[in-house]
Amino acid sequence: MPPESTPGPGTPRDTGSPDRRRRTRRRRADRTVRRRALRAMAWTAAGIVVLGGTGAGYLYAKLNGNLTTVDLDRLLGGMRPEKTDNGSQNILLLGSDSRSGENRKLGGGPSGGGARSDTAMIVHLYKGHRKAAVVSIPRDTLVNRPACTDAKGTVHPAARHVMFNESYATGGAACAVRTVEALTGVRMDHYLEVDFSGFRRIVDDLGGVRVRTTEAIRDPGSHLDLDAGTHTLDGRQALGLVRTRHGVGDGSDLGRIQLQQAFLRALIDRIGQLGVFDNPTKLYRLADTATRSVTTDSGLGSVDSLISFAGGLKGISSSRTTMITMPVQYAAGNANRVVVDEAKARQVWQALREDRPVPGTATEGTAAGEAKGVLNGARAR
């Protein structure tokens, strides 16, 4: 019989004892729970600091109060293309060159505080939201603008052979959406608009966006002066890049679209690399900037809706995004204007309606600028 001071097998002090193993597992579980609780407390404390100690209700109300929305369903009525029921979504993304508020300091653009759609893109999210197609619409495209009603209830008669960006200048978001839907036969499920100052703030809050230029870009009109090489652009530089026409290529709107698309690729990758959902302070700052910087349709006009929408985009990277320009040809007698290549454009719109990839034949032989390859997105630091 073993001495009394020596525990025998099966006693609680034996390391192989079931009781000892259960106690060890409980202690480990308790430590895990404590760590989780401390982590939760840390995030809660960070949230309180971010909110100034006023609680989540204040944050929610503040972000909701930042949003500007437009009720497109009311303004556009029933004369619209049918909604598709295949799981895809189409969003009209506009960059406006308003000169009101902060935008006055940025130079150029329309006088008198007016606004035009300086950038227009149809973003098609394929079923499952794992990939996307972006179709840029040149602002210098000659189109037939349908009659439309603006946000103040003013009815604007139809106009023929006017520049595409005249639609927004005439009647704002509702006229822009009406024109796009008439042009494409594709229903826009949502609308997002960002102005110059908002775009600049978003890029700054992201810590800049890293790109690589294959040649120098110099345009005093857009305050851009870049040597060939890799650059991390701040908001003002990024704005200059997506606005420039004369600093690179042939100075056309088509060339500028190529720069915009290349920058958008770099921006998508930058957002994906930041991990903002793991940092409540950074998340709040970006949410505050974004909600102050965009105008949306009423379907996206709440923080809940925007969070749900943004969450559905997390799986999309630049490598899963196809970018093209709406098929166009130069207008006869005016190299500064383009017209829709109807036969090829029909291939694009049919592909979007049917949630299929845009065929390569849709852009073969169409007009294009000469800025391709000048800008390449680079991985953010």
How would you portray this structure in words?
With 381 residues, this protein is an alpha+beta fold. The chain has two domains: 18-53; 63-377, 3-Layer(aba) Sandwich (Aminopeptidase), CATH 3.40.630.190. The protein is built from ten helices and 18 strands. Strand 6 and strand 7 form a beta hairpin. Helix 5 packs across helix 6.
Summarize the structure.
With 381 residues, the protein is an alpha+beta fold. 38% of the residues lie in helices and 22% in strands. α2 (56-66) packs parallel to α8 (280-293), α5 (196-205) runs antiparallel to α8 and α6 runs antiparallel to α7.
* SSE succession: HHEHEEEEEEEHEHEEEEHHHEHEEEHE
| The CATH homologous superfamily of the largest domain | LCP protein
**Principal-axes shape call:** globular
Largest sheet: 7 strands, mixed
Labels describing this entry:
381 residues, alpha+beta, Aminopeptidase, 2 domains, four-stranded mixed β-sheet, 38% helix, 22% strand, disordered N terminus
Question: SSE layout and pairings?
Answer:
Elements: H1 18-51, H2 56-66, E1 68-70, H3 72-76, E2 89-96, E3 117-125, E4 132-136, E5 141-145, E6 148-149, E7 155-156, E8 159-163, H4 166-184, E9 190-195, H5 196-205, E10 209-213, E11 217-219, E12 224-226, E13 229-233, H6 235-243, H7 253-274, H8 280-293, E14 294-297, H9 303-311, E15 321-325, E16 328-331, E17 334-340, H10 342-353, E18 375-377
Parallel strand pairs: 1-14, 2-9, 4-15, 5-17
Antiparallel strand pairs: 2-3, 3-4, 5-8, 6-7, 9-14, 10-13, 10-18, 11-12, 16-17
Helix pairs in contact: 2-8, 5-6, 5-8, 6-7
